[in-house]
Design a protein that fits this description.
Rossmann fold; six-stranded mixed β-sheet; 3 domains; globular
Length: about 500
């Protein structure tokens, strides 16, 4: 054990109604990048929060080097050289880089209550230089990109002389070039002997950066693999413990179904320019494009969340005047936002309430009293139908995994009897097993006659799931491809060309 930097054994943790960890163990070597993977709810973050002092373990032992430690809070963990960078960054945007790094530990002048700004900035500069980061200490953190803010979190952790650095989904909001910069910093830290725990759903990037991979499932330790020997399929198999739904069934060239939604000449300032497309019954219509292409803006305009300057929307062949989300719901349109926690769910409420929230008027008596039996019956029906994993319908939605939260949003719109569903980044932030279930669910909904617009930044996902693919660039539709025609190369060609070049079979050119 003496060569180990961290050794956790027999760790158990329970929360009310949930046994989160059972006899888990984990090891970290000095100068190692050790990836920790598993489906949402597998216990990865819980285990690492115990190591970082955020949670207290119920049972088990933690050794740092060869010395047993008992960590009561994050401050104690920091003093032991253990720091965790959470997915939601913990910085104060109105303060400078240097002030964020040394918050609460600022050098003082001779008069004790006066901060020594010169010393703060000098110490921050030395730290940033050691990481080869070209960031000025006096820069306001709110003016930095997410990637640069993440670098500040790393610098802040190292200012405590951290030997153990835990990173939870560090690349979730980063571009490829920003990921490359992060990996450079991680390699530098590894060379200096820092042990790094790397939690991520992106299995491909684990092959690039990690030395070992530990897999967890349902709160249990499953296995630890040498990254160089592990295959993606092997990791996935260990994560889910079952055969997952890999791909959509073959889709026909022409569904031969009626058009349920038609958009003509939609314009909104500089964001949307002459948007035209159709959606057929039982179709999954993929929307592809680079960040800022205007895909989400199209969805929000159709749903009435944002006003439009001009254009027409037809639902089942009839003009639909949609000025608000309520209008859209009345026309049978539901929108599952990419930010489900902010726009799709009421996190502090239970599953039952969230499922019926968008159609509450249907569950009221003439006197305005909620028919609780009906809401319970409806929620239980969709929990079973969509395989929502929850201890019960009274469980708060914030306690569910990302994939199950997404299913609750779907249940909400199915309860509202919507036939047109707009999914904006439906699998963002959820693991491979939950993705598989969402794919299966989307195909089942399409087979039942629901019509789906699916916006996704993952080209493999768009290609796997779509009957047709609409491609956007800078607020315009620049191409449409059938499932048979579509390739990553063709999509990227349309996604990077500024002028519309659409030969449409379904109304993209009028």
């Amino acid at each position: 054990m003496s060569s180990l930097l961290v050794h956790m054994e027999g760790i158990e943790k329970s929360f009310p109604g949930v046994h989160a960890l059972s006899q888990c163990h984990f090891e970290l070597l000095p100068g190692e990048v050790h990836a920790l993977v598993g489906e949402n709810g597998a216990g990865k973050s819980t285990l690492m929060k115990i190591l970082a002092g955020v949670y207290r373990k119920d049972v088990g032992r933690i050794y740092l080097r060869d010395r047993e430690v008992d960590l009561h809070n994050p401050r104690e963990a920091l003093h032991q050289g253990i720091s965790m960078i959470h997915q939601e960054l913990n910085l104060m945007p109105h303060l400078t880089v240097a002030q964020n790094i040394f918050i609460g530990r600022e050098p003082r002048q001779a008069v004790r209550f006066v901060l020594d700004d010169k010393a703060i900035n000098a110490q921050a500069q030395a730290l940033l230089d050691s990481l080869h980061l070209d960031i000025a200490p006096r820069t306001r953190v709110g003016d930095l990109t997410v990637a640069r803010q993440q670098m500040i979190e790393i610098a802040k952790a190292l200012s405590y002389n951290a030997e153990v650095l835990i990173m939870d989904e560090p690349t979730a909001a980063l571009t490829e070039s920003e990921i490359d910069e992060l990996f450079r910093v991680i390699r530098d830290l590894r060379a200096k002997g820092v042990g790094i725990v790397y939690i991520s759903h992106r299995l491909e990037e684990l092959k690039r950066i990690s030395d070992r991979i530990t897999v967890m499932r349902d709160g249990h330790y499953i296995d630890t693999l040498m990254t160089v020997d592990a295959t993606i399929d092997q990791i996935i198999s260990l994560m889910v413990g079952r055969t997952i739904y890999q791909s959509a069934p073959e889709v026909p060239e022409d569904l031969g179904q009626p058009t349920v939604l038609e958009v003509r000449g939609l314009n909104r300032g500089r964001l949307l320019k002459d948007i035209n497309f159709t959606l057929k019954q039982g179709e999954i219509l993929g929307f592809a494009g680079l960040m800022g292409a205007g895909r989400t803006e199209v969805a929000r305009a159709i749903f009435g969340a944002d006003p439009i300057d001009s254009g027409e929307i037809y639902v089942n062949g009839k003009p639909a005047h949609i000025a608000s989300p309520n209008d859209a719901v009345r026309h049978g349109i539901g929108y599952l936002s990419e930010d489900r926690k902010r726009y799709g769910l009421t996190l502090k409420m239970d599953v039952e309430t969230n499922v019926v929230l968008a159609s509450m008027s249907r569950f009221l008596t003439a006197l305005g009293v909620v028919r609780r039996g009906k809401t319970t019956e409806t929620a239980q029906h969709y929990v079973k139908a969509l395989s929502i994993r929850t201890p019960g319908i009274q469980q708060r939605v914030k306690n569910l995994s990302g994939g199950n939260q997404q299913k609750v949003v779907i249940a909400k719109w199915l309860t509202a009897d919507t036939d047109i569903l707009i999914f904006d980044e439906p699998t963002r932030g959820i693991d491979v097993g939950a993705k598989s279930e969402i794919y299966r669910l989307l195909n089942e909904l399409a087979a039942q006659g629901k019509s789906i617009i699916m916006i996704s930044s993952e080209l493999e996902e768009v290609l796997r799931m779509s009957h047709r693919i609409v491609v956007m660039c800078e607020g315009r539709i620049t191409g449409e491809l059938s499932a048979a025609e579509a390739t990553q190369e063709r999509i990227m060609k349309f996604a990077t060309q500024r002028t519309a070049a659409v030969q449409s079979k379904s109304g993209l050119s009028q």
